[in-house]
């Protein structure tokens, strides 16, 4: 993590690839398309109640989570915009799906509240970092794993509610993934908070010595 004015090259979380300023790249295009899938899912799920189509959109959005990052590293197209778009798309998918699922009682409000509380914790940490001139921390593999589990769990939970014959078995798989995802989501959040706290302490210590 570096101060934004310094515009240092990030390598953590990008496989050592140099981070550029390009906007029109294939990975960024994939991220934009993933973002468009969010309102499409909400329209299908909440307005039309076309659950099968909504499952397809969710599955595509979840399974392509890793594609943009992989292509960026493979083609040497890692960009600062991509570093922001990828986690933003993941977070938007998770939050939009949770709120929609809560509205139709696919998941209980307590599960949604637990994930939203983690997001508020992270927002507070980011606000502290920005006040000291730092941008968001690099995405950690624990956070990526948690995101993958949650994005995999959501379409499975939706299948469980749509199919009475498979509800028990499929629901068990979906909730297993969802609870593991929730736990790792909080673990990743705690790691970000500790990282931010250490950084702020080091900045204050440096200011005191000066």
Instruction: Supply Rg.
Output: 19 Å
Helix content: over 70%
Q: What does the overall shape look like? A: globular
N- and C-termini, Cα separation = 22 Å
Describe the structure.
By secondary structure, the protein is mainly α. The two termini are 22 Å apart. The chain has 7 helices and no strands.
Which features characterize this protein?
single chain; 210 residues; mainly alpha; globular; disordered N terminus
SSE map:
Layout: H1 26-47, H2 51-63, H3 67-75, H4 80-103, H5 109-131, H6 141-162, H7 167-209
What's this model, at a glance?
The protein is mainly α. The chain contains seven helices and no strands. The chain has helices at 26-47, 51-63, 67-75, 80-103, 109-131, 141-162, 167-209.
